[in-house]
Structure prediction request, 79 residues.
Amino acid sequence: MTSNYTEKAISHLASVTGCDPSDLSPEDTIETVDKWDSLNHMRLVLHLEEILGKQLETEEAMSLFTVQAISELLAREQA
Prediction:
């Protein structure tokens, strides 16, 4: 069973990459999702900054290469 934050992370990633959310899993990474390239990663970061209402630190943005990392960011920022 996935957490609400994992489901949100998958939803945000799918929205940015154009992937079907049902094709994504909590274990996915930038290496396992074909459409998750460097350009879509930057789009993802901008998308997350918009929904969180804050600019992410460079180190934080560069650590978001897994669904798990995105989920953890959402949990931290929306808790």
Notes: The helical segments are 4-17, 38-52, 58-61, 67-78. DSSP finds four helices and no strands in the chain. Residues 14 and 23 are 9 Å apart (CA to CA). The domain at 4-78 is CATH 1.10.1200.10 (Non-ribosomal Peptide Synthetase Peptidyl Carrier Protein; Chain A).
